[in-house]
Amino acid sequence: MIQLLTRQSLKVALTGLLAVSLTACASNAPQTKDAAAPKPTETPAASASKYPEKPLSIVAPSGAGGGWDLTARTIAKVLTETKAVNKPITVENKPGGGGAVFLAEYASGKKDDYKLFVSSPPILINNLKKEANSPYGYKNSTPLAQLTKDFGAIAVSANSKYNDLKSLLNDLKADPTKLTIAGGSAPGSMDHLVAILPAYKFGIDPKKVKYVSYDGGGEALTALLGGNVDVIGTDASSLDQYVKAGKIKVLAVASAQRLGGSLKDVPTMKEQGVDAEFNIWRGIFGPKEMSADAKKYWDDTLKKLNENDVWKKELQANNWESDFKNSNDFNTFLGQQEVLIKDMLTALGMQK
Fold first, then answer.
1. pLDDT tens across 179-209, in order?
2. How big is the CA angle at 302 (ends 69 and 114), to the nearest 5 degrees?
3. Helix (H, G, I), strand (E, B) or coil at 212
4. How far, in Å, CA of 332 to CA of 152, rounded?
5. What is the sign of the dihedral through the CA atoms of 16, 19, 21 and 27?
6. CATH number for the domain harbouring residue 174
7. Which residues contact 187 (CB under 8 A, 6 or more apart)?
8. What average pLDDT score do residues 231-241 get?
9. Are 226 and 302 in the same domain?
10. DSSP state, 268?
């Protein structure tokens, strides 16, 4: 934003300087009888922005399924159906490293105002953790808006012997290697933190917990349903269809209060004596040094999206909570979240 304002200020200053220079030249020019009377200087109106002029894409930095994929597809669907955007929008899946592989390619490649991406805490975690650290973070992008918040959840398959979080943690405390926990992101990333946070709060050494990572929540859920892992740590909203189908049991949610919809009967971690919360915000980002026209377009468009009734219905259907922040507020929030994530990783011995 500072760079955009500086560029705008510089433009105004140069325009003023040019006008003064031209006036000075005119006043010093020799006058002749035949010289036409000077005409008042006319300032052309700023041309209206034509952005967007071609199709757009929104990247989910994961495989199909899971929170990022669902968020990207829902944004594209509502913007298209409500005609809030008059160009086609496609959704691309770019899995790898819990979003780190895509962000490295995006941040180091050619700036593209027509390619946006969704993200959540991993954009901070991947940059702050010690193992498999990414040199790129949210400061290598333009945060456009936070749209929703979700919460971490712990789930097991429907035929699991576990029916509550406490019994699972008791077994895990007795033997941390007894159970295999899965997540849709790399070790030290969001799903890993969601999965091991209750264990850590329960007095279990997080380094001894057996964690297996997959490229996206969809793959992790497939592993759970296939009996390849015992437990999954992920975002609560991505579990809705599996709960309704009777394929899984959600043992706990990492929210302050119980959630609604299909998870209304699932107790919080705090209710079960585990003092743990994990807020999974989700937002949309553009390239660093995004053009002023493109940024303003998305500022306006995403604000309207948040106020749209079609979007509100999608929030309810997906068990998401609205938590809109515009670009400026989102950027400030990310700075605050960076401090909190660093503190959490430090407590787990995972900070860089």
1. 999 998 777 778 888 988 899 899 998 888 9
2. 65
3. strand
4. 23
5. negative
6. 3.40.190.10
7. 131, 132, 211, 213
8. 90
9. no
10. B
pTM recorded for the entire structure: 0.72
What is the reported pLDDT for 171?
Answer: 96
CA dihedral of 200, 221, 138, 281, whole degrees rounded to 10: -70
Same domain (yes/no): 212, 157: yes
The domain containing residue 323 runs over which residues? 56-149+280-347
Cα(186)–Cα(132) distance, integer angstroms: 8
The domain total for the chain is 2
| CB 235, CB 255: distance < 8 Å | no
Domain check: are 95 and 182 in the same one?
Answer: no
According to DSSP, residue 350 is labeled: -
Q: Are 76 and 90 in contact (CB under 8 A)?
A: yes
| Reported confidence tier of residue 47, pLDDT bands at 50, 70, 90 | low
Q: Of 249, 272, 295, which residue sits at a domain end?
A: 272
Return the pLDDT at 124.
94
Which of 247, 272, 297 is the endpoint of a domain? 272
Angle at 241 between CA 239 and CA 244, to 5 degrees: 105
Does a structural domain hold residue 18?
no
For residues 249 and 113, what is the distance between their CA atoms, to the nearest angstrom? 42
The owner of tokens 């030249």 is 25
Looking at residue 348, its pLDDT comes to 76
pLDDT above 60: residue 40: no
Quote the DSSP letter at residue 101.
H
Written as six digits, the tokens of 269 are: 């971690």
Same domain, 143 and 156: no
DSSP alpha helices (H): ranges in 137-189? 165-174
**Cα–Cα–Cα angle for 258, 264, 267, rounded to 5 degrees:** 50
Q: What is the pLDDT of residues 313-351, one digit of tens each?
A: 999 888 788 999 999 999 999 999 999 888 878 877 888
Same domain, 297 and 249: no
Contact 237, 150 (CB under 8 A): yes
In a domain, 326, yes or no: yes
